[in-house]
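Researcher: Structure for this, please.
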Amino acid sequence: MSWYPVSLNLKGRNCLIVGGGKVAERKLKSLIKAEANVTLIAPKINAILQEMREAGAYHYLKSTYQANDVNGFFLVIAATNCSQTNSRIGADAESQAILFNSANSSEYSNFYPAAASQCGDIQLAISSNGQNPYLAKKIRKYLEQKFDSSLQDEVLELGRLRNQLVKDTVGLGEKEKKAFMNDNLLEKVGALLDKIDKNTWEL
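Model: Predicted structure, token format:
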């Protein structure tokens, strides 16, 4: 199966996690980082999730999963330790064309979170389409070391330069615009890539 890579804007979107353990905790942190509005359903939650709940980081429903709990959510993640429960959640999500991921099974999952890191406006994302998350994590760590935070200022500066060049080329034809961008941006991009290439790394 061929998967379409995409980045989702979850800011302000209603997202649901079912589960109260370490996996749910990890998924919750990533959704909060994306500024999603998160609801978590579980009969009990671990200590860290409890601390986050008390801090008002998400909405908690103390319950087992019930049919149609997925109603009204943009994205749903099943993170329980029961494969049958995760499958029920997936079937409910599929019936309503909701984005769904199961933490322990590919059944019903219609997306897989990538192993991602951020450097300024550059996001590095690696996915194994759910087949080998450990390998995806290792590759992400390799890229993080090659493309570390010390380069963030240069990445931001290149972004500002590119935006200015777009303004400067308004009204030019496509060939002229491409030549102008190459003359003013290509050398700086090449210098940054040389720095990235020279960074050392370890697995």
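Researcher: Any notable elements?
Model: The longest helix spans residues 174-198. Residues 75 and 99 are 5 Å apart (CA to CA).
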